[in-house]
Write the structure tokens for this entry.
Amino acid sequence: MYQFNSREELIKYLSKNIINTNEAAEILNCSRQNIDDLVKRKKLIPIRVLPRDRLFLKEDILTRTIKK
């Protein structure tokens, strides 16, 4: 369980650990379409789906780079 002592601490954590589709594609060296395919096949699970984007835990993306 995470506990934050201030709003600033929470924002700092989120900015370091949450990434969007473009950032995920850059880390994995693939296209947005490839990210979409990984999500459809449930190989990547977004933590939030927005109208034009998805948010992922950076740790999940970095774990995929190890599996490659």
